[in-house]
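call fold(seq) -> tokens
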Amino acid sequence: MAKKPKKEESAEAPADGEKPKGLVGKLMGNKLILIGAAVGLLALVGGGAAFFMMGGEDETAVETGPPVPAEPTAFYYNLPVMIVNLTSSEERQAYVKIEVALEVGDQSMLTVIEPNMPRVLDAFQTYMRELRASDLQGSAGLYRLKEELQRRVNVAVYPARVDDVLFKNIIIQ
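ret:
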């Protein structure tokens, strides 16, 4: 009788004492290196996260004193208090008392605005005399007034530019 051929051993199941061959063998042989690399990567990611969560500040930094204040980014020009009577269909007159400041971004613009102040006041007075008390009611009415005054002052002081019109005081009677 003929002998039966022995079953060939598969590459995946190594015999006792032999190292596996192929990719599995390399991975098992380098298991320690892979674990070390994973721990190192985890430590880097955790350290980076901790650095960003703390704001990246160095706790050993020496304080040099209070911060130096930056130059002002806005300059203001106060207009005189104006009292204007409003248009009214009733017998009773309505008045508005308004105190305004102009905000500009550069101090050199103040020197351009000052000689043109009669023109600015004229533009404000003529516009406001055409308003009714109902035009100034609510925050929307004051916002429209602010935008219109800013547009008129920019026309009056061109080439200078006023960034904002600020209400210091406004009373409608």
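The chain has a mean pLDDT of 81.
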